[in-house]
Batch of 2 targets.
Target 1
Amino acid sequence: KQWYQRRVRVPLARLSYGVYLFHYGLNVAWAAQLRHVYSFLPDIQSVIIFIGFIGTVNLISAILFLCVEQPMANFEKLLLQLLECFSLSLSLSLPYSALIP
């Protein structure tokens, strides 16, 4: 398989949309709570803030995926199966001429 088709990349692809959605809002919220201008003088502080920011955004996107996206995908799959069964039973019970408007 090609590198972009590997199964390892699937969780990363699912989380990347959530990271895209939440990174800007979290960055704005963090900047809004600052009481003074942030300086990049202490390097270790900048690294800790960056790692914490990345971790927080990934955690929020994982929670979003598990609580919203995955249940909706399961519901959609179930709904499509029900509709497929209903349309199959409908097509078996009605003559073909009744299905054409």
Note: Helices lie at 9-32, 43-93, 96-99.
Target 2
Amino acid sequence: MTLKNIQKSSSELIALASIRDDASRLPSPLLPVSILEAWNSLSPDMRAALVASELSSSSLQTAKISSSSSLTSSDSNRSDTSSDVKNEKEGVILEEDPDSEIKKTASSTVMTKTTVMTSTKGWRNVFTLPISYDVNMIARGTLLDPSNSQLLDSTGVHPEGYNRRFAVIDEAINHIYGKKILDYFEAYGIQLTAVILPGGESDKRPAAVDKLLDAMCDYKLRRREPFLAIGGGVVLDIAGMAACMYRRGVPFVRVPTTLLAIVDASVGVKNGVDYCCARTDETYKNRVGSFYAPSSCLLDTSFIATQDRRNISNGFGEILKLALVRSTDLFELLETHGANLVEDRFAPSKSVPEGVGQRVIDLSIQIMLEELGPNLWEYTLERCVDYGHTFSKLLEMVPGVDIMHGEAVNIDGFFCCLLSYLRGFISMETVERVFRCMQSLSLPTTSSHLTSTLAWQSCIDAVEHRNGAQRIPLITDIGDSVCVSDITPEEIDRALNLLKEFDHRKSGE
């Protein structure tokens, strides 16, 4: 029950008087004498009804109870709890015991309960944030064809005569497709303003976000005007962070142009940059960022053909990760056709059956969406998609190291295979099968920088990042995994010693 501030209206006084009658039957130590005296001061003819408010089950539970002798139907229908914003005025709150009993007789309602006296003022705001965005697979090679309006359509509906658009474009993509992108919009009478950003891992810094924000301010991007982000994962991350910050959120469209971005960065809602801390003089991977969904995502796999062999293998680092933790079907496709897909760059060829390359991409995206969707904000920190993302973070941050993200993920992934083997989760036969698949995809499986010190520091960082526990995913079979939180330094050293027994392909370090 809630005793609200006394107002000089007869209906409220009647309600308060009836509450007093109910409260007076409680053990006297639970109510201050001053409160009881206040109730006693009310005249008997005001004691006709019992009024209560009912809060949601997540807050204080209250109920509206009316007496048949004095409240009209219009009085009994009063309620201010229709919204999800819970408002408690300053006053006395009687918190009801969940085991309370309500007994009804012909003329009155008697409630038997235990109450606790508290004083409160505040609001509980409960909102449901709608998240909806489309991931659209475009017919191969048609995204920049003026006869296909999907790219233009993704930038939203604008007033007639509004003939400009804004885009951030990866430097490498601009070199290859810059003129074609401009020609596409010119065909529709649209002037495209583009800011060009480098897309290397070393460029993933707050300064890049500032540069993009400066360009958006200069362009005077409108609050509901979607802009385009065309490029690899680094540029998409920078664009997502800028979109989240500019005017506290503007829509943006992802157009991934690398294999890695198509199956990874384009699918989820995370974005961020690496951060160099002035106090520690260390750089932390993805330390600053946000959860912010694109308005849509357009996938054209023809962009992959412009990548070199190493970049395509780099993309397979994330695809193989998904296969190891979720899909034997995907793993078998990589075992059988992975090497040829790397060689042919996902272009149609006689060496790979028709549809296999598209099936690999479709499965990867489907698995990512299935894993991310129910846990979009990562309230659950035991995530199988974190496989390969425990030791790789520090490995990528080693000063001067020449290692790409997917390569680091794969090195981490194979090291975790050895940890699984040492725990008896998988056999050596499974370890060797995984190793052969990694080799066929031209992925590195070790690094001279993967030391005992770095590996154990990675476990310490994992505890910080994953809120007090390691939560390191390990495979229990190809296509299945479990998270563990008790890896020891001795276990790491045993795995590092076992790592030396394999004939590795190393990264470009």
Note: Residues 309-326 form the longest helix (18 residues).
